[in-house]
Amino acid sequence: MTDVLNVVTRAITGIRPDLGDSRTDITREAALFYAAEPGRPVLGLDSMEALELIAVLEREFGVELAETGIRIADLHTVGDVVDALSGTR
C-alpha cells in the first residue's frame, strides 16, 4: 500500500507542485477538496485538478475507474484513493 501512496502523492504533486513546496502534508488523512473535520489537512483540489488526477492515476495503474467498482464520489481523502487503487494492482 505504501507504493500506491507514493504513486498517488507523486500524481498530486505533479498536478499541484505548490503542495510539494508548501506545509500541506499529503498524508492518508488529507482531504482532497475540503475538510469536513477541523484540523484535517486539506489539499484543495478543484474539479479540473480532480479530473487530471483521475486521468494520471488511470494511466499509471492501467485501469479505467468507470470499469471498476470504484465510485469517484466516495473518494474524499488521499487514503480513500490509495485504498481504492490498492485493489487494482
Write the layout of secondary structure elements.
Elements: H1 2-15, H2 17-21, H3 47-61, H4 78-86
Helix pairs in contact: 1-3, 1-4
Q: Which key phrases capture this entry?
A:
globular; 89 residues; 4 helices; mainly alpha
How many distinct beta strands?
A: 0
Termini Cα gap: 10 Å
Query: What value does the average pLDDT take?
Result: 88
Helix content: 40-55%
- Main beta sheet strand tally, sense and closure: none
Number of helices: 4
Gyration radius, in Å:
12 Å
Principal-axis shape: globular
- Strand portion: under 5%
Fold and architecture overview:
The longest helix has 15 residues, at 47-61. The protein is mostly helical. The chain has 4 helices and no strands. Helices cover 48% and strands 0% of the residues. The mean pLDDT is 88. It has helices at 2-15, 17-21, 47-61, 78-86. The chain is globular.
Describe what is shown at a glance:
This protein has 89 residues and is mostly helical.
